[in-house]
Design brief:
With about 290 residues, this protein is α+β, with helices and mostly antiparallel strands. Helix content is about 55%, strand content about 10%.
Length: about 290
């Protein structure tokens, strides 16, 4: 009891609201960092770094001066090394922050998007029926130019007939991905980065691995028609949904490609809204003053 009164209670009295908020922010940040890096290559690297810290502590405790000196010298440049090693993960994390509700405050509104899902589903159904392989990538907030290799510019409206012609076997553009940007076919025959996931089934071919790879590194949506089985799959955030029917594909794409609405969609819109309200109030007050004088 005396320990509680002499140590714990005085400590509790010194705790302020700002301290609690500070701890909660750090806890939430740590939670999302662990959640973001879990099931990635970074998780294994973090385990290795933790092992180095433990070895360094043991070396100092056991007075192993040479090992301790080497490890401490290595850790002095560790920050720069971490930035280089974790560059892909850091980039995805910053892009995720930019796509959050806070990040959308600084982005402009997007116009209502035309319905391209019906054309996509029609083309996918016909390609699946003939076991014609296809890979379609829907660009969202993250621009994919840095992740794509080669590609032929198209710049055409999305139609089922055009998509089916692009993926006809042995044609110049069939081998690669079609990139859909702002509801138009932007490029064809694009080469995508392959997935780094080592646990993928051996039955998944290059198209599936490329579709997963691009979805792991951005917020895009990837659609694959298997050349071997004709089965339809959709990838997002490194996850895959397989064996989709035409109806389920239409519902899924409609949901995933729907424009996100946010009350604070951009700063300019909010400032203009406030400014207009202020002008209306001033005008109303001015009119009331004139009525009073009359």
């Amino acid at each position: 009891m005396s320990f509680l009164q002499e140590t714990i209670l005085p400590f509790i009295r010194t705790v302020q609201i700002s301290d609690i908020v500070d701890i909660l922010i750090v806890a939430v940040a740590a939670y999302y960092l662990i959640k973001h890096f879990r099931n990635t290559r970074a998780a294994q690297l973090l385990k290795g770094i933790a092992t180095i810290f433990v070895i360094t502590f043991l070396a100092e405790w056991l007075n192993l001066n040479v090992i301790s000196f080497i490890l401490e010298s290595t850790m002095q440049v560790g920050l720069i090394a971490l930035i280089v090693i974790f560059q892909p993960e850091l980039r995805r994390g910053l892009e995720h922050m930019g796509r959050s509700k806070f990040g959308r405050w600084f982005t402009s509104d997007k116009e209502d998007q035309p319905d391209i899902v019906a054309e996509i589903c029609k083309a996918t159904k016909n390609l699946s029926a003939t076991n014609t392989g296809a890979l379609i990538v829907f660009e969202k907030d993250t621009v994919l130019d840095d992740l794509l290799t080669s590609g032929t510019s198209i710049g055409a409206d999305v139609t089922a007939e055009l998509l089916e012609n692009i993926f006809v076997p042995n044609t110049p553009l069939h081998d690669g991905a079609v990139l859909i940007r702002e509801n138009r076919i932007h490029q064809a025959s694009c080469v995508l980065p392959l997935s780094s996931n080592k646990d993928l089934s051996n039955e998944l071919g290059t198209r599936h691995r490329a579709a997963l790879g691009i979805s792991e590194q951005s917020d895009c949506i990837s659609l694959v028609v298997s050349e071997e089985t004709g089965k339809i799959s959709v990838m997002q955030d490194g996850n895959m949904i397989r064996n989709l029917s035409e109806t389920s594909l239409y519902k899924l794409l409609t949901k995933l490609l729907a424009p996100k609405e946010d009350v604070g969609s951009n700063v300019k819109k909010n400032l203009d809204f406030i400014w207009n309200i202020t002008k209306d109030k001033k005008k109303k007050q001015s009119d009331d003053d004139i009525d009073t004088e009359i």
